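My current task is to audit a protein record that another person submitted. Alongside the sequence sits a line of tokens, each denoting a local backbone shape. Where you disagree with what is written, explain briefly why. This is what I was given:
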Amino acid sequence: MTGSLGVLGGIFDPVHNGHLAVASLAREALGLKKIIFVPSGNPPHKSATICASASDRLNMLRCALKEETDTIIWESELKRPGVSYTIDTLHELVREFNCPLYFIIGSDNLQEISSWHRYREIIDLVSFCVAYRPGYSDLIPEELSGATVKFIPSPRWGISSSMIRSYFSQGYTCKHLLPSSVIDYILRKQIYIIKS
């Protein structure tokens, strides 16, 4: 494939408008051909916080992206046994697409990059596209010196998947926080809804 691709990984539990806005802004700001969404399988840092099943998270992502022609959903982490490491997924993507990759990451994760499995390989393999997250520094950590790091304009919303799950459990519909197709899926499948 010609041109650069963006890679946006996440648990997407659920995918929300913040994820979609960052992907769109990254594509426009960096002239990316497509954005590859990578739903996490069994991430080493957040496995205890996953609420929806892998198939429901994948289906919500499909609902959110069904009209988008400039996106790809990469499902390999959901199929891979054991812990899902970012470096393994990035190697797969480099082999598959054979083009430059921008790894889209929030400023919260940027500050923790040195705790990631084989993070130095990640730094050598991809360029970074950083979206600001409220409450986190936008300074480049020393561990990333020498890496290609581009900051993009990003919404400074306080929106998060955990907040949305909490709202659903309290009976709110979360209109305007996530695509209506995802809301419909959540309500139909009763995900995050506390039954009384």
Remarks:
- Helices lie at 17-30, 54-65, 76-79, 86-97, 107-110, 119-125, 161-169, 180-189.
- The first strand starts at residue 5 and ends at 10.
